[in-house]
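To the wet lab folks,

You asked to see what we're planning to order before we commit. Fair enough. Below is the target structure as tokens, and below that is the sequence we designed to fit it. If anything looks off to you, flag it before the synthesis order goes out.
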């Protein structure tokens, strides 16, 4: 690892102007390319104290051995040069989108004498009309097969066409009516070109006029008793409508737009793009990237725009590009897109209406893509084994931690403080072993004390089970209940992970020390920089950015966080649904519902007299008096207030929805594990 000060240029040597810079390693390989509005300010930020740099940036500058730059006139030129260098040098520390294969387009070769409809990939050619891109080539072929009935344009290769010219016999499509056979002069070159133009017009979204014209022709043919022609036109209309159904209208006014959404965590990001042409979704594509550098959502959007439109020109760049976050500054990127298209391009965030609704759909696709990617990665046995070995090596464990337990604390402004315990065995979730805790030892918010309490309670149960059964090898059923189910806290982990830094780790270790447990390792994963903290260490363990061990620890931590939030939200919802009528002795659910139905709300019931309450069927005078007293003594719950703005908050503002569980084998909501424990009386 190099010392950045050994190659740091003097501040006076760096120009204070827009430009693009390259970091090179000791072998002169380019490892990072970046652009800046001010080269001096940007490069100076890399040469500060290493402790103040993001871990990924720190790794990059210590890997580099030199830096160089190129001055340009404008930020737009910097954007173009940055893209060119990233494509040329493929730097290891830049954002790289995987699975970026060339997506297929439906192409019509209008530059040929007899235009041909075909699937095309790669660089676009002059004189060729493109539609798409599509997610799969078979989607193009299905659409073309339907349209050839109405627009029998040539689809054969040059070799097949020349062979038909030589022999005077068309191919099979010519015999079955799906090609006008220009190879044997059944149609002139001018008429065939007109047919290809109509095909392009239909694919461009101008469908209504053409179908109405066919319907009029069908009606006229029927009136003239040309029933065979009318039937053929009817079948043509059905084929066109079926092709249109494959590309349902999602945006009005024949809008041309690309919608981009990003789903990300600290380590990876998934990008999804929907291509809307003529108001219809014509294609979809997506990428997954490792976040090698410290990037924001806006940075990811900018990199994706470069990747998406770097090779595109003309109509391939739409009039509108809708994104979840705007690059900062947005003007150079918008100007660059305008240059690529040749006319104005609107780059913005959708705020309302159909475009915002469609953006939400794209976002769901991005979340699903990221979850699927993580599931595939986690389900690989070799990868899981490598992750456990890396954790053991980084934490100096005697063996791989086959059972990992992770704990997280969740609360809302100090209320409804709960904790979660999730279990991973052999790198996979063990949901039947999940547990959840209510903090009982004190009131208020104190994550450190909460962590100490939870670890103490969990391992007291472990010691109790151990004392009850003796050594684990004693007896065949030492670790199971009479019905064969595992005892609730019988199995000890090899590693305890807590969500947090030094304070939480120290609290967990103190709890184990107080219980006399010295054979269980403890570590913490701090969310901000993904640093691993060990008890008593002043410096964290920084796992390599590409480490499978770090990925597994992050996945365990995120699952504990999700499970804790789910439980906390459930408790909060129950508290909000609580009614003063719950405290009235002898008042069952049926009579409570009757009271609410009669008066409409607890507020109106509170203002009612005893005589009015007695009007409710099943409510006597004594019961009515008890209800009136209970409601008078009960104080209405104060609304929750946003401490930052002073505004009353709705329930939905308290917490974000829990992260959907997309891991393997998780068809049910993970909270069901805890819910079943509650029904069995197993909540700690």
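Sequence we intend to order:
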């Amino acid at each position: 690892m190099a010392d950045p000060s050994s190659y740091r240029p003097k501040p006076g040597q760096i120009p204070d102007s827009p430009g693009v810079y390259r970091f090179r390693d000791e072998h002169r390989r380019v490892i990072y390319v970046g652009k800046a509005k001010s080269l001096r300010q940007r490069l100076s930020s890399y040469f500060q104290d290493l402790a103040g740099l993001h871990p990924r940036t720190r790794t990059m500058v210590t890997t580099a051995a030199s830096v160089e730059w190129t001055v340009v006139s404008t930020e737009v030129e910097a954007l173009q040069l940055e893209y060119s260098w990233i494509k040329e040098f493929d730097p290891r520390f830049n954002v790289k989108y995987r699975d970026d294969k060339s997506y297929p387009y439906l192409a019509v070769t209008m530059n040929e004498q007899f235009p041909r409809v075909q699937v095309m990939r790669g660089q676009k050619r002059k004189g060729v009309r493109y539609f798409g891109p599509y997610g799969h080539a078979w989607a193009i072929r299905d659409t073309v097969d339907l349209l050839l009935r109405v627009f029998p344009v040539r689809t054969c290769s040059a070799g097949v066409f020349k062979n038909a010219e030589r022999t005077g016999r068309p191919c099979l499509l010519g015999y079955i009516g799906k090609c006008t056979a220009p190879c044997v002069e059944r149609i002139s070159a001018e008429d065939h070109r007109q047919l290809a133009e109509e095909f392009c017009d239909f694919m461009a979204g101008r469908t209504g006029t053409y179908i109405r014209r066919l319907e009029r022709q069908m009606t006229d043919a029927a009136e003239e008793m040309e029933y065979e022609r009318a039937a053929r036109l009817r079948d043509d209309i059905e084929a066109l409508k079926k092709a249109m159904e494959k590309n349902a209208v999602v945006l009005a006014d024949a809008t041309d737009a690309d919608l981009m959404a990003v789903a990300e965590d600290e380590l990876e990001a998934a990008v999804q793009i929907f291509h809307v042409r003529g108001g219809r979704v014509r294609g979809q594509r997506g990428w997954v990237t490792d976040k090698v550098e410290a990037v924001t959502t806006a940075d990811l959007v900018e990199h994706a725009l470069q990747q998406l439109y770097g090779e595109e020109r003309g109509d391939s760049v739409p009039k509108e590009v809708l994104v979840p976050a705007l690059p900062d500054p947005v003007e150079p990127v918008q100007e660059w897109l305008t240059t690529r298209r040749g006319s104005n391009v609107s780059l913005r965030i959708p705020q309302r209406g159909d475009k915002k609704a469609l953006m939400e759909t794209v976002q769901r696709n991005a979340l699903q893509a990221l979850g699927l990617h993580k599931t595939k990665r986690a389900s690989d046995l070799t990868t899981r084994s490598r992750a456990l070995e890396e954790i053991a090596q980084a934490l100096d464990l005697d063996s791989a931690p086959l059972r990992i337990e992770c704990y997280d604390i969740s609360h809302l402004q100090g209320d409804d403080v709960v904790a979660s315990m999730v279990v991973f065995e052999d790198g996979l979730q063990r949901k039947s072993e999940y547990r959840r805790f209510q903090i009982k030892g004190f009131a208020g918010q104190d994550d450190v004390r909460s962590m100490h309490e939870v670890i103490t309670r969990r391992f007291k149960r472990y010691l109790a089970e151990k004392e009850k059964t003796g050594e684990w090898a004693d007896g065949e059923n030492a670790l199971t209940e009479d019905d064969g189910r595992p005892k609730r806290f019988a199995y000890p982990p090899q590693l305890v992970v807590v969500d947090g830094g030094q304070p939480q780790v120290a609290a967990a270790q103190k709890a184990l020390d107080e219980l006399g447990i010295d054979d269980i390792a403890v570590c913490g994963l701090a969310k901000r920089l993904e640093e691993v903290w060990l008890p008593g260490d002043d410096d964290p363990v920084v796992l390599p950015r590409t480490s499978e061990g770090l990925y597994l620890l992050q996945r365990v931590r995120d699952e504990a966080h999700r499970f804790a939030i789910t439980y906390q939200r459930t408790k909060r919802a129950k508290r909000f649904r609580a009614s003063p009528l719950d405290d009235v002795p002898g008042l069952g659910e049926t009579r409570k519902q009757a009271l609410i139905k009669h008066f409409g709300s607890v507020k109106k019931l509170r203002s009612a007299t005893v005589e009015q309450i007695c009007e409710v069927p099943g409510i006597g005078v004594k019961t009515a008096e008890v209800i009136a007293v209970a409601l008078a003594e009960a104080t209405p719950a104060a609304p929750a207030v946003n401490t930052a703005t002073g505004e009353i908050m709705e329930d939905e503002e308290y917490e974000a929805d829990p992260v959907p569980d997309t891991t393997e084998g998780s068809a049910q909501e993970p909270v069901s594990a805890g819910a079943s424990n509650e029904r069995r009386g197993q909540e700690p």
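Structural context that might help your review: Residues 383-564 form a domain with the Nucleotidyltransferase; domain 5 fold (CATH 3.30.420.340). Residues 106 and 140 are 6 Å apart (CA to CA).

Thanks,
Computational group
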